[in-house]
Write a structure and sequence with these properties.
mainly alpha, three-stranded antiparallel sheet, two-stranded antiparallel sheet, 8 helices, 9% strand, globular
């Protein structure tokens, strides 16, 4: 099961920005922290005058990102790496999981066409029918993360020794050395 990696969290933080006092976003919705709204369903209902700490903002972001990840995970049927998944979660965090699940980015990815999936991320650059520079920048960053090669394994399980395997089998079947 894939999870959002540090690069994904950092991308979301960068583009959502951190506001510790509640504000109304461009859609006239009360928002706080890293773009957290009541609709995220993470246990906070931003309202006028509300403030939170950075630690609380980080907590709500993690909770929200994990919730969005869970919502889109079932729609992904092709093998996916952590950078691709993290880029898709960032996109879904911004456009909503329902829109992501209907997106050409997901359709192309599931069809095995990563190049078209990557290009489709860039299509989500408008609000109110107008191209927004901030959305263009975010989509380019998501696309870059999506395309970024995985160069290291975060955790590689240790291979058991021959004696450990023998000991385990001996325990199961009562064999003697």
């Amino acid at each position: 099961m894939q999870n959002v990696n540090k690069s994904g969290f950092d991308l979301i933080k960068e583009f959502e920005g951190l506001r510790l006092t509640a504000y109304k976003c461009s859609a006239d919705v009360w928002t706080i922290g890293y773009g957290t709204t009541a609709r995220a369903g993470v246990g906070i209902v931003p309202e006028a005058g509300m403030t939170i700490t950075k630690a609380e903002a980080d907590y709500y972001l993690e909770k929200g990102v994990n919730k969005f990840a869970d919502k889109i995970r079932s729609g992904i049927i092709a093998p996916i790496n952590s950078n691709e998944f993290s880029a898709f979660v960032s996109l879904a965090y911004n456009i909503g999981p329902s829109a992501f699940l209907r997106s050409s980015a997901l359709r192309n990815f599931n069809a095995g066409n990563k190049a078209k999936a990557s290009a489709s991320i860039l299509l989500w650059n408008k609000a109110g029918g107008k191209v927004l520079r901030g959305l263009q920048r975010r989509r380019l960053a998501e696309q870059a993360l999506f395309q970024k090669e995985i160069t290291s394994v975060l955790h590689k399980p240790a291979q058991p020794s021959r004696n450990a395997i023998f000991d385990f089998l001996s325990m199961l079947f009562g064999a003697k050395k």
